[in-house]
Amino acid sequence: MTSDAGFQNSTSKSRDQPLLILHAGTHKTASTYIQERLHLNRDLLKQQSIVYQDPCCDRPKAKKLAGELCKHREKRWRRMLSNHKQGQHILLSAEQFSVPLTDQKCIENLEKIANAYGFKLHIIIFIRSQLDYINSRYIYSLRRFYHSQTFEEFVTNALAGEMHSERQQRGRIARRQDVFNFWTYFQPLLEAKKSGLKVSFIPFKQNGNDPFHDLISAIGASPNQPWKKCASRHFNRSPGTRGVWMARLLSQKLKEHKISTRSIDNSSQIILREEQQRRWNDPAFWGYSRRLKNQVIQHFKHDNDKFAKAAWGKSWSTSFPNDVALQKQKKQIFQPQSIEEEETMHATAVHLLRRIRHQVKPSLVNQITDPAERIASLLSPSITHRIIQCMKASGRPLNVE
Questions:
Q1: Which backbone phi and psi does 22 adopt, to 5 degrees?
Q2: Measuring CA to CA, which residue among 77, 92, 89 is closest to residue 31?
């Protein structure tokens, strides 16, 4: 489902003026998957006069350019545009663009730079339904140990326009916290769109649409091409119900022991790897009770319809037919079913805490003993935990908790 009817026709009529196309996420809308497919299809895009500024091969990276916008700097932008071959379109993709594109001055500066080098600016943003989006952001932020909130606490903050786990400032602009209210969050872009800026908002994964094909259609490329597919590893995997429960418990322990998430290497993979090694094959987490689900729907209903009218000229329900299925989806969470199971989960969390502490403050002894402890923990976390507690009681310095 593309956002602006007739875009391909209008693009073909304005081929004399090259486009500076920015795909700006949003967060949790398959950006990694889209970028990998853009990378694989660079040659095919180039045949259609679209140059993808590939972060794997090209400089400056799109993330750096997003940071430049936030700092109100132009040097890297001007260098990139001045080195670009005339007559071809430029495509940039980075979800970090969604931050400066909520700031009116950043939008105006970007449009001014594009025009100075003969480009017409085109912004593309995917929109994910709040029910799905909040649930996904909760899992994402929890598996990175940004907080230890319950799902209900996270939803309450989301409805209040608060994202305490997010950095408050980026460059010279205050980072917006009302990320789930698209009518307010994207108000600067909606105003720019009304004034003539090309802005395409695309409903994410509606009616089974592939977001890559939606993007390809939005930029005016032909969807009827042999576009290469990417491996499944480029689909961001989320932890299942047990992994989410473990992430919250471990996050609590990290906070208790004053371990900063910034000091942990590759923190986002810890829970995912633990799931794989323990062969947890659980259903996807879905945190909503019926009451909470209805609360979210009612909270955003009025502003959603205003946003949909401004973005697509139609109602929210027409643009998001998949919401019907989300409203019927039953709550899916993990709770230990016995004292033994709870002991095992807590023992696993203690083991992970020890591994993190040893990573933050490595020692030769830990490098020797950790692999053996790891194997023992996989075989029986609760037994390993009891051994550790006994050794602690005997006075041996284990630096466990």
A1: -115, 115
A2: 92
**pLDDT (tens digit per residue) in 289-340:** 999 999 999 999 999 999 999 999 999 999 999 999 999 999 999 999 999 8
DSSP 3-state of 198? strand
Distance CA 107, CA 246 (A): 41
Residue matched to tokens 């908002």:
201
DSSP state of 284: B
Shortest CA distance to 241 belongs to which of 269, 281, 301, 188? Answer: 281
Hey, which residues does 21 pair with through a beta bridge? 91, 122
Instruction: Note the pLDDT tens digit of each residue in 210-246.
Output: 999 999 999 999 888 999 998 766 567 899 999 999 9
Q: Could you give the 3-state DSSP secondary structure of residue 27?
A: coil
197, two tokens: 């800026």
Q: Are strands 169-170 and 173-174 parallel, antiparallel or unpaired?
A: antiparallel
Residue ranges and CATH numbers for the domains of the chain are: 7-129+171-234 (3.40.50), 241-283+336-393 (no CATH)
- pLDDT-flagged residues of the chain (< 70): 1-15, 164-166, 232-235, 365-376, 379-401
